[in-house]
Amino acid sequence: MCGEQTPSVAPRIGARVDFFSPSPQGHLPLGNLLFLNPTSPSSCHATHVRFQHANHPALDEPILVSIHTTGDLTEPLGDAGVMKQFTLRHTPYNITQGVDMPLGAALSLNVGNNGIIGRRVSMRRGEEVLADGIVGFNFAPAVSAP
Predict the structure, then answer these.
(1) 135 vs 109: CA distance, rounded Å
(2) Domains and CATH numbers, the chain
(3) What is the pLDDT along the chain (146 residues), one digit of tens a residue?
(4) Which residues contact residue 135 at a Cβ distance below 8 angstroms, ignoring those fewer than 6 apart?
(5) Secondary structure (H, E, C), 45-113
(6) Beta carbons of 103 and 90 less than 8 angstroms apart
(7) What pTM was estimated for this model as a whole?
């Protein structure tokens, strides 16, 4: 499900995870992670990630991001398997762009096999699970002619 196979007329600009952290009051939004290829926005492979944090303007400590082998949010993280991991480190934060960093290797923005669409993604600081979410396609809003 990439490119023209994607059932939408909106252009795809990567994949996105919206993170929510558990709290006594319910799930609170933490931010989002965009998987993208800045030089080719409609590419089926992400070469960069961009993290936009909902509550803090910077990463004060490194955060481990894990892309799991399943997409089941009810499964304990220890049983979810790990497909890929990388660390978000403290970098200058741009309020509109967030923290942008290259990935060590391109990730497939497909469903199944080696693709990341539909997989669970978690964020941890040490042993503390900060938040998790599911990877979905990200589309640019349709622009209407004036």
Answers:
(1) 9
(2) 12-139 (2.60.40.200)
(3) 444 444 555 566 789 998 887 665 555 567 888 999 988 888 899 999 988 776 554 566 788 999 999 999 888 888 999 999 998 876 655 545 567 889 989 999 999 888 999 999 998 888 888 889 999 988 766 555 55
(4) 15, 16, 17, 35, 67, 71, 116, 117, 118, 119, 121
(5) EEEEEEEEECCCCCCCCCEEEEEECCCCCCCCHHHCCEEEEEEECCCCCECCCEEEEEEEEEEEEEECC
(6) no
(7) 0.80
